[in-house]
Specification:
single chain, alpha+beta, YojJ-like (1, 7-stranded mixed beta sheet, 3-stranded antiparallel beta sheet, 12 helices, binds adenosine-5'-triphosphate
Length: 295
């Protein structure tokens, strides 16, 4: 033990610890934030592909340097300024955008975590609710059958896999189009995640609930079935009667009005307002965000 301490002392005495003051800490924080923002920017632009390309070229140059391939190194040194100009010209739109964003308030809130203000958190927007209600009642009017599963907390990937990938922003026109008779996507269920239609023609588990009315066929049984195995909300438009039903927690609510459907969807939307003023919360010694229903 004594030996270890003396060895450590000997080595640690050679290490010169620089004095760190508050400006150094701020500098480190600023650099970290800028590096992080730069990496995020790279990831979501074409620059990501460029970065991968540059890494491959750098690896190639390293090999050329290690094995002293002087001709290659000479060519690269002559071309380097041209390459930099080429990169600037190719990525001019992205560079221009980032400079423009610097002048906007949005980037400051991304850089400074102590953002002041409130943020609305919701599973889907009011617009999506409007589109859904409109589509369901429009389809009901002309007796077009539909089955729409709205994903909540439980992921529905295993049912999504049984269908055809759509991945499109939900609109009433798109829904009506999907469930149009004799079209390739009309059979089975549509699964929604957030504001998007993830997949169509999905196969859902059928409920074996004996209490369900004998008049109801497999579309309604499938709607109740998925609500028994997940926390999803499912809207069923009857092809026979044009009525709208909603399946939730293994129960079927039949013939709902548009106001009732809207109410159910607003509940599923789970809209909360999150107070983003973390600095104020920290100063108050509170760690949890305050959430309040917007109603
Ligand atoms: N397991 C399932 N998963 C998803 N969709 C299903 C499933 N079973 C049936 N369907 C859909 O339901 C349709 C058949 O509906 P059916 O007429 O049997 O139901 P229903 O409950 O009587 O409804 P409707 O009032 O619309 O006639 C199928 O064409 C298919 O689109």
């Amino acid at each position: 033990m004594q030996n270890i301490i003396s060895v450590l002392n000997r080595y640690l005495s050679h290490i010169n610890m620089p004095s760190v003051n508050i400006i150094d800490v701020i500098e480190i924080l600023l650099i970290s934030v800028f590096v992080y923002q730069f990496m995020v920017w790279i990831k979501y632009t074409r620059a990501y592909t460029l970065l991968k390309g540059l890494l491959i070229i750098s690896a190639f140059l390293l090999v050329a340097y290690i094995f002293k391939m002087n001709t290659i190194l000479w060519i690269v040194s002559k071309l380097s300024s041209v390459l930099i100009m080429a990169v600037i010209v190719i990525f001019q739109p992205e560079l221009r955008k980032i400079v423009e964003q610097l002048g906007q308030k949005r980037i400051m809130s991304a850089i400074i975590p102590f953002d002041v203000g409130k943020e609305v958190k919701e599973r889907f927007t009011d617009k999506t609710i409007n589109e859904l209600v409109k589509a369901c009642f429009d389809m009901g009017e002309v007796k077009t059958g539909a089955l729409i599963v709205i994903e909540q907390k439980n992921r529905l990937d295993e049912y999504i896999r049984t269908g055809i990938n759509v991945d499109a922003v939900l609109s009433s026109q798109l829904l009506i189009n999907i469930f149009e008779h004799n079209t390739p996507l009309h059979d089975g269920a549509v699964v929604m995640r957030g504001n998007r239609i993830v997949a169509a023609t999905c196969y859902l588990p059928l409920s074996d609930n004996m209490e369900l009315s004998k008049q109801l066929g497999t579309r309604h049984r499938a709607g109740v079935g998925i609500s028994e195995v997940s926390d999803s909300v499912t809207i069923i438009v009857s092809e026979e009667t044009g009525q709208i039903s909603v399946a939730q927690e293994g129960k079927l609510e039949r013939n709902v009005s548009s106001a009732k459907l809207r109410e159910i969807l607003e509940k599923a939307q789970n809209k909360t307002i999150v107070d983003n003023n973390k600095l104020r919360q920290l100063l108050k010694g509170r760690s949890k965000n305050e959430g309040k229903t917007d109603k």
